Amino acid sequence: MEPECYEHLMKNKDLIRFIRMNPEWYRYLMREPDRVFEMERLAKEYFGKTITQRMDRMQQNIQLIQFLMNMANSSSD
Q1: What is the pTM of this model?
Q2: Following DSSP, what letter does each residue of 4-67 receive, concatenated?
Q3: What's the CA gap between 52 and 31, in Å, rounded?
Q4: Which residues contact 46 (CB under 8 A, 6 or more apart)?
Q5: Overall domain count for the chain
Q6: Distance between CA atoms of 65 and 38, rounded to whole angstroms?
Q7: Of 9, 19, 25, 49, whose Cβ has the fewest other Cβ atoms within 10 Å?
Q8: Which domain holds residue 69?
Q9: pLDDT score of 75
Q10: Do residues 56 and 32 lie in contact, with contact meaning Cβ atoms separated by under 8 Å?
Q11: What are the φ and ψ backbone dihedral angles of 49, each rounded to 5 degrees?
Q12: What per-residue string of b and e applies to 37-71 under the rule 16 or more CB within 10 Å gives b?
């Protein structure tokens, strides 16, 4: 693996975890080091760190809080 690619991986712990869980990426990066950006995108999707996934989680949390507030208001009546 090229030193630049290796250093890039070492700077991001999520990429290290992803590549350990998907060892075929070792081979891909050995042959084509530019695919590290593709691997980053896939790792973000895998770990739920894309913007849409974060928005969905936030929306679920808001709905949960609203539900709990409604339950608290109805029990105090």
Answers
A1: 0.73
A2: HHHHHHHT-HHHHHHHHH-THHHHHHHH-GGGHHHHHHHHHHHTT-SHHHHHHHHHHHHHHHHH
A3: 31
A4: 18
A5: 1
A6: 36
A7: 49
A8: 3-75
A9: 75
A10: no
A11: -110, 15
A12: eebbeebbeeeeeeeeeeeeeeeeeeeeeeeeeee
Closest CA to 37 of 48, 49, 47, 25: 25
Which are the contacts of 48, defined by CB distance < 8 A and separation ≥ 6?
A: 54, 57
Q: Which two tokens stand for residue 23?
A: 């060892």
Q: How far is CA 40 from CA 24, 35, 61, 67, in A?
A: 14, 9, 26, 36
Residues 6+ apart with CB under 8 A from 50: 44
pLDDT digits (tens, 9 = 90+) for 4-34: 989 999 999 999 999 999 999 999 999 999 9
Amino acid found at 42: L
